[in-house]
């Protein structure tokens, strides 16, 4: 699709803006429709689908928060089910609003007054991306880093690829959410690759594995003699990442005490090595990751809210492989090629039953499990075709998945029991706790856990 065949809808309460955009785009696009009142968006989209929508962020000059535009963006994407690429326009350039609109599904963000060439280029990119969604084109560069777990033609992965390219050049802190095996570290590396810090260090720390005694030493460093085994001065990971990107993996597993230490460093932008009183300035871009859902991180008994705001300027949610059906065979064939070369075998393809078996599995171990499954199949294969017999899924992952289901079922039983007892006692928490054999405090924790 070229720009000449594209249709564009512009919604802005400034008539001068509508006139200027109409004059600019009339020679460039097939059709341009302008609308002053956002209340009419529903009826317009009910009659016609557009390729691109230019949407103002503020429809009330006395309220310049961008909330109006975000509201209508959500309506367009969720309620009106439009497939158009939405470009937000505003006179109030602010990185927080830009990131917020991108988080809600906007394609891009432009500031009034814009450069005409820039606006046209942005619309061209939006049209091209809308077309690419149907072909599986990937926006990331062709390199070994991005040709493995991050390979994907599903819409959700295309959205992630695009979001990486938009947010990576900023210094915004990123929180990556996703199950184990979905490729959170590769996303972090991609963000670093596209940032202005790409020539500087990328330092990874699995903070969830650090004990309280090691946490400060590993992250902040120590002076010789600070503790028994401190035989020399040592830089911490913050210092090692100075000028570059610090990736804190499994951030959701650190203790409240560790969270307080981390928050202090992020607020002050300095670190103090153990055994020293000297504050060392740091300049890092922070990327964090966890397999814990954001809803659990919002529980202040588990995670400090002020730290969440610090690390989560924008989040990237990586879907599990079972929600990326379009990518399963694409990834399987790619891994087959990699391991055929590695083990000096001819390029192996899949027969129909093997494909059916791959598509019928739920992948509790996600992309990592698929990768190991294909590697095992290539090693054990004798011919040029991988069959269903060659595809053997990990019994460990299946056992863990079964245990998770059982645990989930137990949680449902507990929740229903609590609801029944509370209803029995007409909402009296003290009586309900007494019958359940737990304290009021413990009952309140469970009420919070199950959102009762």
From TrEMBL:
The record ties this protein, via CDD domains, to:
AAA (cd00009)
Which InterPro entries does the UniProt record give? AAA+_ATPase, AAA_lid_NorR, CheY-like_superfamily, Homeodomain-like_sf, HTH_Fis, P-loop_NTPase, Sig_transdc_resp-reg_receiver, Sigma_54_int
Query: Record's Pfam families?
Result: AAA_lid_14, HTH_8, Response_reg, Sigma54_activat
Q: Name one GO biological process term.
A: phosphorelay signal transduction system
4-aspartylphosphate, modified sites:
56
Designated name of the protein: DNA-binding transcriptional response regulator, NtrC family, contains REC, AAA-type ATPase, and a Fis-type DNA-binding domains
Q: Does the keyword Coiled coil apply?
A: no
Q: Which GO terms of the molecular function aspect are on file?
A: ATP binding; sequence-specific DNA binding
Q: Which residues form the Sigma-54 factor interaction domain?
A: 150-379
Which superkingdom, per the lineage? Bacteria
Q: Which residues form the Response regulatory domain?
A: 7-127
Q: Which UniProt keywords apply?
A: ATP-binding, DNA-binding, Nucleotide-binding, Phosphoprotein, Transcription, Transcription regulation
- Is ATP-binding among this UniProt entry's keywords? yes
The cross-references to PROSITE patterns, in alphabetical order and at most eight, read:
RESPONSE_REGULATORY, SIGMA54_INTERACT_2, SIGMA54_INTERACT_4
């Amino acid at each position: 699709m070229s720009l000449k065949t594209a249709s564009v809808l512009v919604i802005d309460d400034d008539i001068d803006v509508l006139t200027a955009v109409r004059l600019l785009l009339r020679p460039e696009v097939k059709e341009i429709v302008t609308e002053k009142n956002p209340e009419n968006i529903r009826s317009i989209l009910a009659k016609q689908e557009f390729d691109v929508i230019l949407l103002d962020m503020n429809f009330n000059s006395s309220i310049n928060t961008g909330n109006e535009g975000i509201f209508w963006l959500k309506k367009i994407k969720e309620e009106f089910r439009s497939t158009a690429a939405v470009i937000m326009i505003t006179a109030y350039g602010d990185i927080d609003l830009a990131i917020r609109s991108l988080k809600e599904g906007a394609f891009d963000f432009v500031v009034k007054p814009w450069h005409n060439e820039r606006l046209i280029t942005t619309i061209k990119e939006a049209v091209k991306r809308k077309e690419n969604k149907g072909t599986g084109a990937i926006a990331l560069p062709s390199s070994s880093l991005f040709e493995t777990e991050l390979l994907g033609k599903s819409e959700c992965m295309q959205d992630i690829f695009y979001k990486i390219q938009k947010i990576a050049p900023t210094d915004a802190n990123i929180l990556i959410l996703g199950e184990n095996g979905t490729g959170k570290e590769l996303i972090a590396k991609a963000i670093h690759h596209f940032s202005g810090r790409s020539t500087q260090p990328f330092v990874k720390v699995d903070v969830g594995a650090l004990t309280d005694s090691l946490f400060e030493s590993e992250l902040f460093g120590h002076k010789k003699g600070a503790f028994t085994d401190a035989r020399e001065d040592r830089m911490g990971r913050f210092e090692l990442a100075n000028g570059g990107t610090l990736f804190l993996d499994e951030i959701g597993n650190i203790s409240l005490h560790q969270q307080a230490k981390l928050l202090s460093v992020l607020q002050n932008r300095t670190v103090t090595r153990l055994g020293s009183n000297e504050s060392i300035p740091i300049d890092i871009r922070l990327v964090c990751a966890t397999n814990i859902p954001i809803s659990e991180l919002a529980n202040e008994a588990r995670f400090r809210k002020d730290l969440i705001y610090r690390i989560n300027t924008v989040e990237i949610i990586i879907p599990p492989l079972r929600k990326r059906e379009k990518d399963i065979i694409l990834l399987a064939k790619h891994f087959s090629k990699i391991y055929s070369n590695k083990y000096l075998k001819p390029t192996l393809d899949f027969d129909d039953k093997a494909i059916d078996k791959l598509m019928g599995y739920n992948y509790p171990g996600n992309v990592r499990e698929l990768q190991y499954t294909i590697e095992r199949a290539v090693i054990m294969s004798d011919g040029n075709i991988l069959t269903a017999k060659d595809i053997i899924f990990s019994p460990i992952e299946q056992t863990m998945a079964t245990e998770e289901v059982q645990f989930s079922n137990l949680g449902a039983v507990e929740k229903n029991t609590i609801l029944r007892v509370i209803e029995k006692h007409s909402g009296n928490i003290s009586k309900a706790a007494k019958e359940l054999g737990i304290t009021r405090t413990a009952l309140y924790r469970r009420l919070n856990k199950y959102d009762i």
